[in-house]
Amino acid sequence: MAKGTRCMALLLLVGLAARAVSAVPDGLLPNGNFKDGPGKSQLNGTIVMGSHSIPFWEVSGFVEYIGSGQKQGEMILPVPEGACAVRLGNDASIRQKLSVTRRTFYSITFSAARTCAQAEKLNVSVASDSGLLPIQTVYASIGWDSYSWAFKAMHSVVSLAIHNPGVEDDPACGPMIDSVAIKTLKPPQHTKSNMLKNGDFEEGPHVFPDSPWGVLVPPMDEDATSPLPGWTIMSQSKAVKYIDSPHFVVPQGSYAVELVAGREAALVQEVITVPGRSYRLFFSVGDAGDGCKDGMVVDAYAARENLQMRYESLGVGGHRRAEVGFVAVGNRTRVVFQSLNYHMKPDGTLCGPVLDDVSLVSVRKRVARRLFM
């Protein structure tokens, strides 16, 4: 081969490799909404035939390209955030390579909808980091929910994969995926005025500006990277909802957390304390202005104390401030928040009390057991 030809071939390979790795500014991934789909020759009906048929994505297994309003039998498959989505059948996955900054934390947000299988789960992974996200509970009335997951980048190029580990009799009975986005997380630190990290919930996953249903933060292992920095969600299969002020009423700032799963999900943070020292825990409880009308109760725990803070919701927004005093009994103290009961909106979707503006301070003298404002 002539020298010039070899150079041209090398340049072509370098160019193709560069195109295969996507730069990742915060927001939607390249073709993250699957607007650019396979050519007609790369489709067998709805089934994607080639592993690189969808631009910027690599697919494997039984993957379908679904248009909004398409039917499966008598069931219409909606795609609320765009014109197209992908459906992952038995053991199918989609994958995209991303250029990232090493040792930086990132969160992934994507929208998913269950189709005909019941106990659907999705495995999201980057290298050895992975999380199995249960999606069988539907929280939004349209049947689609946005989910978040987080990882710490250990390399400058990583491969993000979303995989359906299920095996159904009908290979087409898998979840649909749409609108995959990324956000760089800046892990907050505690301050002199607040021992809790991210007590105002201003640091969290990407929220799609056109999605009025918030982002679910699913249960995670205690050692896992949290898309809601500083906080862990303890549950078997339920989530909490991360909400924003453009679409919901939040007590303070731009973001808050809605406790939508009753006692089945707890929001937890562990802090360093001094045994025998007194502390005060402050927080706001309200409603998201989303039509959730009920007598709501947030159960707050710290050391040996707990406070059941009641809020009468009219579904139009508003909040109350509360505090509880406790004496630390160990070197580490868990702060825990749960909704005491389940709540539903008139359309049958789950909702619950909103938690925001949480702070923990040390005090010199022993404080009263329970205090209200």
TrEMBL record:
Signal sequence region: 1-23
Keyword ATP-binding: no
Pfam families linked to this entry: DUF642
Keyword Signal: yes
UniProt GO MF annotations: enzyme regulator activity
Main location: secreted
InterPro entries according to UniProt: DGR2-like_dom, Galactose-bd-like_sf, Pectin_Meth_Modulator
Compartments it resides in: Secreted, Cell wall
Protein name listed in UniProt: DUF642 domain-containing protein
Organism: Brachypodium distachyon (Purple false brome)
